[in-house]
Amino acid sequence: MGRSTLTAVESLAARPEPLAAPIPHRRVLLKLSGEALMGDDAYGINRETIEAMVGEIASVVELGVELAIVIGGGNIFRGMAGGATGMDRATADYMGMLATVMNSLALQDALRQKGVVARVQSALKIEQVVEPYIRPKALRYLEEGKVVIFAAGTGNPFFTTDTAAALRGAEMGVEVVLKATKVDGVYTADPMKDPGATRYQRISFDEAIGRNLKVMDATAFALCRDQKLPIRVFSIFKEGALLRAVRGEDEGTLVHV
Ligand SMILES: Nc1ncnc2c1ncn2[C@@H]1O[C@H](COP(=O)(O)OP(=O)(O)O)[C@@H](O)[C@H]1O
Ligand SMILES: O=c1ccn([C@@H]2O[C@H](COP(=O)(O)OP(=O)(O)O)[C@@H](O)[C@H]2O)c(=O)[nH]1
């Protein structure tokens, strides 16, 4: 038996007994902001930010929660910025999707170093580098206790990784989409621009869409609303926030049907 198979089996065997307090979520999708992974750096992945996140992911996996991840690419390339400089928007968006593949591979490796088994599946075919997205295979990995990282967004230009998170979340049948981003929830206005903005504890999809709150794009909101898939928005920088979100505790903002 190959070493990688053993590791997967070992990690399954090492799953702890269910805790006395039941965990409300058995399968979740985590959306990690590419841009937030920069931390204070000018571009790329900040070592401390990714290490902190990987530590939190490891503790979620230890709980026995099945975890799928969609990672952004804004720390390397953002299609809109390319478009603004006169580049063809679709070409710029494909570059953005390739950036998410790089982030996914970096995250997979950071997880490996922490002893967490992860598989990357890409919406774009780059078979020498990463396996393609195959839904039943992804479901199988999750059932085996492996983390699945979905790379290349939806595989289509003019979309975002938030929409990819909603799409893959719905396909994987997760109970919640957890959006880890730069801000600690959904505010009445963009808190980066309006210091008077206040945070919602809970907000309905209809209200978030109606008020045009930009923390997530409208396509992602609409897809989650139609699929009755709640989203919890929380800070990527806050220690313990992911674990609290997975436990269904009051963290950030819950966007609900
Ligand atoms: N109403 C709002 N509440 C919270 N954040 C908002 C709101 N409107 C705009 N934002 C902005 O949305 C950003 C998160 O969206 P985005 O940049 O797409 O995140 P990500 O990189 O995580 O996909 C926040 O950094 C914040 O500045
Ligand atoms: O389905 C997708 C997902 C992403 N992108 C491109 O990839 C970039 C990076 O993704 P995103 O901006 O969502 O990342 P994040 O905000 O999390 O850093 C986007 O700007 C788009 O250009 C795309 O074209 N289609």
From TrEMBL:
<dbReference type="InterPro" id="IPR036393">
    <property type="entry name" value="AceGlu_kinase-like_sf"/>
</dbReference>
<dbReference type="InterPro" id="IPR001048">
    <property type="entry name" value="Asp/Glu/Uridylate_kinase"/>
</dbReference>
<dbReference type="InterPro" id="IPR011817">
    <property type="entry name" value="Uridylate_kinase"/>
</dbReference>
<feature type="binding site">
    <location>
        <position position="181"/>
    </location>
    <ligand>
        <name>ATP</name>
    </ligand>
</feature>
<dbReference type="GO" id="GO:0033862">
    <property type="term" value="F:UMP kinase activity"/>
</dbReference>
<comment type="pathway">
    <text>Pyrimidine metabolism; CTP biosynthesis via de novo pathway; UDP from UMP (UMPK route): step 1/1.</text>
</comment>
<dbReference type="GO" id="GO:0005524">
    <property type="term" value="F:ATP binding"/>
</dbReference>
<feature type="binding site">
    <location>
        <begin position="31"/>
        <end position="34"/>
    </location>
    <ligand>
        <name>ATP</name>
    </ligand>
</feature>
<feature type="binding site">
    <location>
        <begin position="154"/>
        <end position="161"/>
    </location>
    <ligand>
        <name>UMP</name>
    </ligand>
</feature>
<dbReference type="Pfam" id="PF00696">
    <property type="entry name" value="AA_kinase"/>
</dbReference>
<feature type="domain" description="Aspartate/glutamate/uridylate kinase">
    <location>
        <begin position="27"/>
        <end position="235"/>
    </location>
</feature>
<feature type="binding site">
    <location>
        <position position="78"/>
    </location>
    <ligand>
        <name>ATP</name>
    </ligand>
</feature>
<feature type="binding site">
    <location>
        <position position="73"/>
    </location>
    <ligand>
        <name>UMP</name>
    </ligand>
</feature>
<keyword id="KW-0067">ATP-binding</keyword>
<feature type="binding site">
    <location>
        <position position="93"/>
    </location>
    <ligand>
        <name>UMP</name>
    </ligand>
</feature>
<keyword id="KW-0665">Pyrimidine biosynthesis</keyword>
<comment type="function">
    <text>Catalyzes the reversible phosphorylation of UMP to UDP.</text>
</comment>
<protein>
    <recommendedName>
        <fullName>Uridylate kinase</fullName>
        <ecNumber>2.7.4.22</ecNumber>
    </recommendedName>
</protein>
<dbReference type="GO" id="GO:0006225">
    <property type="term" value="P:UDP biosynthetic process"/>
</dbReference>
<feature type="binding site">
    <location>
        <position position="187"/>
    </location>
    <ligand>
        <name>ATP</name>
    </ligand>
</feature>
<feature type="binding site">
    <location>
        <position position="74"/>
    </location>
    <ligand>
        <name>ATP</name>
    </ligand>
</feature>
<dbReference type="GO" id="GO:0044210">
    <property type="term" value="P:'de novo' CTP biosynthetic process"/>
</dbReference>
<keyword id="KW-0547">Nucleotide-binding</keyword>
<dbReference type="InterPro" id="IPR015963">
    <property type="entry name" value="Uridylate_kinase_bac"/>
</dbReference>
<dbReference type="GO" id="GO:0005829">
    <property type="term" value="C:cytosol"/>
</dbReference>
<comment type="subunit">
    <text>Homohexamer.</text>
</comment>
<feature type="binding site">
    <location>
        <position position="190"/>
    </location>
    <ligand>
        <name>ATP</name>
    </ligand>
</feature>
<comment type="similarity">
    <text>Belongs to the UMP kinase family.</text>
</comment>
<keyword id="KW-0418">Kinase</keyword>
<keyword id="KW-0963">Cytoplasm</keyword>
<keyword id="KW-0808">Transferase</keyword>
